[in-house]
């Protein structure tokens, strides 16, 4: 008798399992036909796909600099000598490619760098509105100088953005998990992430392309889609901040729309 009951139980479970599989397959097919809008379906929603960190082929605009003659300087040669003066080659590069009157300093932190962490206090940077360049401790070479000159070159929307998105996302990172406070700053972090992904990243892309023209390569190089690894990294960090903020602001909606959650702590700045 017990054997017969066990056999019936197994048959019922098998039948129920088959029917559940049929229902799941039908649901997945419906989700496919609706382009992923059904929650829990097999296809990621359009919103989720939009916010994927596709750093190999990121979504920011790419602008190539006008052709410039290749510099004969060694990209790894120091830009400042041991006495703290620009080398002759570095001065020639500044005179030839940077706007007239550009000043170049060494190891001077920019205002507010303390908010972004120790690595920023000694970083290289450019200030286009002042035609000013600073080379940090690890950026004393011709290649980094070329990159910073690239930030001063030309006129484009991303030049006005600079590192605004990075400043917002990284200054708010330390408090993102603080109860209540983290949720209050989440909308600001989301906005900063979008600016970083489409503004900061485009600006770093331009500077890296300028560097490649001037020196033959850039410090971080380019990927198989001819996007600079530096720009792609900024894009990934920006999209990551948006993802993270979305999950804090509207976790149910983020789950429903299959928005990935891949944000990691921002990496130290390269230069």
What does this structure look like?
- The chain is mainly α.
- It is 51% helix and 4% strand.
- The chain contains ten helices and three strands.
- It is elongated and about 95 Å long.
Helix proportion of residues, in percent? 40-55%
Order of helices and strands: HHHEHEEHHHHHH
**How many H/I helices?**
10
Task: Give the overall average pLDDT.
Answer: 80
Global morphology:
elongated
- Give me the secondary-structure category: mainly alpha
**In whole angstroms, how far apart are the ends?**
78 Å
Arrangement of strands in the largest sheet: 1-3-2
Care to count the β-strands?
A: 3
Report low-confidence residues grouped into runs of 5 or more.
Answer: 263-271
Query: How can the largest sheet be summarized?
Result: 3 strands, mixed
Global Rg:
25 Å
Beta-strand proportion: under 5%
List keywords for this structure.
mainly alpha; three-stranded mixed β-sheet; elongated; 10 helices; 51% helix
Would you summarize the structure shown here?
The chain has 271 residues and is mainly alpha-helical. Helix content is 51%, strand content 4%. Helix 3 packs parallel to helix 5 and helix 7 packs across helix 8.
